[in-house]
Amino acid sequence: MSPSIEVRPYAVGDEKAIAHLFERSYGRSLGEAAWCWRFLDSPGGPGVVALGWDGPTLAGHHAVSRVRFSISGEELATGLSGTTMTDPAYRGLGLFSLLAQSVYRSMEDAGMAFVWGFPNTMSHRGFIRDLGWHDVYEIPTFRLDLSQEKALPVRDDRAVGLQAFDSRFDRLWERLRSENRIAARRDRDSLTWRYLLNPTERYEILGLIQLDELLGYAVLKEYLQELHVVDILAPRDQTEVGESLVVSAAQLAKERGLSAVSMWLSVVHPLHRALERLGFRNEGPVTYLGARLLRPLPPGSNLFDFRDWYFTMGDSDVY
Predict the structure, then answer these.
(1) What is the reported pLDDT for 151?
(2) Which residue from 48, 177, 182 is spatially nearest to 112, judged by alpha carbons?
C-alpha cells in the first residue's frame, strides 16, 4: 500500500469526486443524486463510507447503506455493501481490504449487527478470502417462460395497481415480520424510499386488496423482455395470496408482449412450490448472497443459514 493513501469518512462535498471515481472505475456515469439517495437518504439512517485519498485524487471507495432488519422479531441496524470501487491506477495495492476494514470498524463502533450483500463474480473471492465474509446462498433466478403452452390461472380481480405505499403496508409488515427470522424491514417508509424515491428506476405496485385491507403486495419492474417481481410480501401460510399476485404479474407481462416473469424466491419458501406448479423454474443468472457477522444475533437465528433469510431482488442494489 502506498504510504500516501489517507483513509477518512465521507464528508459533504465529496460527491463529485465519488462520481468521477465511479466513471474511471466502471466506464459509465453515476449521478450524484443516485449516490446520495443510496448512502445518505435511507430511512435506516446514513450509510458508512470510507474513502482513500492520494492527495487530491480519490483512489478508492467502500461503503454500506444502512438497512434495518427484523432478526427473530428484534430490529437491528445492518449494512448493505455496495458501490465498491478502486481507481484502475491504484489496483493491486490492497486498497479494497484497507477501506473495507475501516468501514467494518465504524459499523462495530455504531453497534451495527452485520454487513451483507451480493458480491459479483469479480469481487466474490475477495470478500470471502480477504474480508471475513461467509457464503449464505447462491440465489438462482426463478423464471416463468410465458411462451409455454400451459395456461395461466384467471387473474384475481382483487389484485390492483397502487400509486403509493400507505398505512396498510405498515400493518401488513407488523403482521408478517415474525414469519421470517432474518428479513429487511418492509414498512411504508422503507418501501417508499426504495421504490418511489429511487432517482434512476421506475417500479409498479400491485396490491391484493380485500375489504380495503392489504393481504399482500408485489413490486414490478420491466427489464428488457422480462417483468421482474422485484419484491413480494404475502403470508407464508396463505400461498394463494402470493400466487394471485404473481399470476396477476404474469398476466400483465403477457398483455405487454413480454417473454418471461422472473423473481428471487428461496427454495424452502412455501410459495416456491406453488409457483413450480405454474411452470416457474430455477435458472440463471445466479447471484451470491454473503455476510459477515459483527455482533451476536438474537437467539434462534443463524446468519449463515439461508433457510433463516427472506430475500427478494429488491434487497439488492442492482434491481
Answers:
(1) 82
(2) 48
Tell me: the pLDDT tens digits for 186-228? 999 999 999 999 999 999 999 999 999 999 999 999 999 999 9
CATH code of the domain made up of 140-286? 3.40.630.30
Domains 5-112 and 140-286 share a fold: yes
Cα angle 188, 235, 157; round to 5: 80
> CA–CA separation, 153 vs 66, rounded Å?
40
Q: What is the mean predicted confidence (pLDDT) over 146-161?
A: 88
Q: Please list, residue by residue across 130-153, b when 16 or more beta carbons sit within 10 angstroms of its beta carbon and e when fewer do.
A: ebebeebbebbbbbbebeeeeebe
What are the φ and ψ backbone dihedral angles of 173, each rounded to 5 degrees? Answer: -60, -45
d(CA 145, CA 140): 15
Residue whose cell numbers read 428479513: 183
C-alpha cell at 137: 446462498
What's the CATH fold of domain 5-112? Aminopeptidase (3.40.630)
- Bridge partners, residue 52, by sequence: 7, 60
- CA dist 143 and 207 (Å) reads 21
Segment 78-132, tens digit of pLDDT: 999 999 999 999 999 999 999 999 999 999 999 999 999 999 988 899 999 999 9
Q: Is the Cβ–Cβ distance between 241 and 225 less than 8 Å?
A: no
Closest CA to 234 of 265, 264, 271, 184: 271
Domain residue limits, the chain: 5-112, 140-286
Compute CA distances 319 → 18, 30, 195, whole Å.
Answer: 21, 15, 10
